[in-house]
Amino acid sequence: MDKQGITADKKTVFDLKFFIKWGIAIGVPCILYFAIPQTEAVSLEMRKFFVCTAWAILTWAMNLLPVYISGLLLTVGAILWGVAPANVVLSPWTGSVVWLSLGGLTLSVIFEKSGLMQRIAYFFIVKSGGSYKGIITGITLSGIVVGLLVPNMTGRVALYCALCFGIYNALKIPKNSNTGAGIMFAGFVAAIAPSWLYLSASENLQLVNSYLKETGNSVSWMQYFISNFPVMLLWLIVLLIMVRILFKQDASIDGKEYFKEKQESLGKMSKKEIKFLVILILLVIAMVFSGIDAGWLFILAVIACFLPGVDVADIEDMKQVNFPMVFFVAATMAIGSMSNAVGVAGLVSELMMPILQNVGNFGLILFAWLTGVITDMMMTPLAGMAAFSPLFIDIAAKLGLSVVGTTFSFVWGVEQLFFPYEWALFLILFSYDVFDMKKAMKFCTVRTILSIIFLALLIYPYWMMTGFLR
Asked: Average pLDDT in the 309-315 region?
């Protein structure tokens, strides 16, 4: 067969897959609409909600459209089709989480440009010795500081992936080696694990806390810190040890002098770095003591960076902000808003109540974790949290069990995975092509198994001790 014939065959296969995917994305929602009976318990608006949500989730899962385009179509389509009033569908924009996402993404861009990211990372690596184990340890520990100063997981993953890939190339580490994989995984741990140290460090936790706020069960920054920082710091150390054990050094590197040179090349902190650091420190102080929602504080911090006399950022920085992610966050939150409006959470919780009647706090928390893990296989973490967080809040409240513990346990499960496709943030790491699928699955699977053991043996008892299970 000639090259033209091969190309034609590939195009045919591509077109076939394309039409099959779109057939699923459109066909499944249509089947749901006609298969779900309209009764006193299931309204027409509820049936429409299932159709819109199924379409959006399938479109996101199969990557048929840019996520923010799918989100915009979901938002506008739900309003025009009468799933819920516009004030309900657009309600995420009147809350703080969307603005928190925008502020966090913007601060991440400014943080990278300022040079603070490299300064903090190189400091920890040099202090750790600059060896392979030292690099992994230094990168991971730097996440404790960066997680507090850069309040956005997406931004931190992008920062750490770029940093670790630069180290991988500079030290000429072989592709698909344990050494290269270990350094990249350390960067992922540094970006993700600190999300559980501080309530402000994770858009996922902020999203769920916004749902808890609607029912009067939200937690403050300090309440969360007291009940989570010690045990989650131990979790970060567990993941550090896991990476060192799973990916033992198999390539010789001499990074001590390299990192010392990189650290020295940064010189003394510039005036811009100092001013930006002051803004971030004031942001943290405000989150701890002011009682103002973090989303509004993030926006104020961004504004401060552009003020005359401060001039930490400029218009070019705004061009690098991932604005589509903000619209995606709003769209996923709209799913939760519509779910509450049409009564889905109440209906599903009524159906599940007999099964969960006698499980107790521990049983419900484990069930929430398992549901989160399964959910992540079928939809994006944000979409899963938007769809199921109201459900678990309602179930826990009706059973008289811990609303806060159950909901945060669900998020803990949603953030676990077995395959790279399950989480866009892990796909960013995987896209650098430093390690193969086998190593990716090894890291993800062991991390997921450790997460349920850690939840049962350490997190749950600590939450009981601190009163977080309320």
From this structure: 86
SS3 for 248? Answer: coil
* Tokens coding 342: 């049409």
Q: Encoding tokens for residue 384?
A: 């899963």
Return d(Cα 293, Cα 276) in angstroms, integer.
21
Q: Give the number of other CB atoms < 10 A from CB of residue 315.
A: 7
Whether residue 64 contacts residue 25, with contact meaning beta carbons closer than 8 Å, is answered with yes
Please, is 250 exposed, middle or buried when counting C-beta atoms within 10 Å of its C-beta (0-12, 13-18, 19+)? middle
Q: Which residue has the higher pLDDT, 116 or 199?
A: 199
pLDDT of residue 184: 92
In 3-state terms the chain splits into helix, strand, coil percentages (rounded to 5) of: 80, 0, 20
Q: Using 50, 70 and 90 to split pLDDT, how confident is the model at 261?
A: confident
Dihedral sign (CA 283, 284, 285, 289): positive
Confidence of residue 12 (pLDDT cuts 50, 70, 90): low
Structural tokens at position 164: 């670790």
- Position 4 scores a pLDDT of 47
Q: What DSSP string describes 349-361?
A: HHHHHHHHTT-HH
Distances (CA, A) of 123 to 133, 135, 141, 145, 421: 15, 11, 10, 11, 33
pLDDT at 345: 67
What local confidence, expressed as pLDDT, does residue 379 receive? 67
Phi-psi region of 62 (alpha: psi -120 to 50; beta: other; left: phi over 0): alpha
Pairwise CA distance, residues 119 & 317, whole Å: 20
- For residues 187 and 161, the answer to whether their CB atoms sit within 8 Å is yes
CA dihedral 81, 82, 88, 90 (to 10 degrees): 20
How many Cα atoms sit within 13 Å of 28 on the Cβ side? 14
* Residue 8 pLDDT exceeds 50: no
Percent of the chain with pLDDT over 70: 95
Could you give the CA distance from residue 381 to residue 365 in angstroms, rounded to a whole number?
18
- Which residues, 6 or more positions from 228, have their beta carbon under 8 angstroms from its beta carbon? 196, 197, 468
pTM score: 0.78
* Mean per-residue pLDDT over the chain, rounded: 85
What's the CA angle centered on 451, arms 374 and 228, to 5 degrees?
Answer: 115
d(CA 90, CA 378): 25
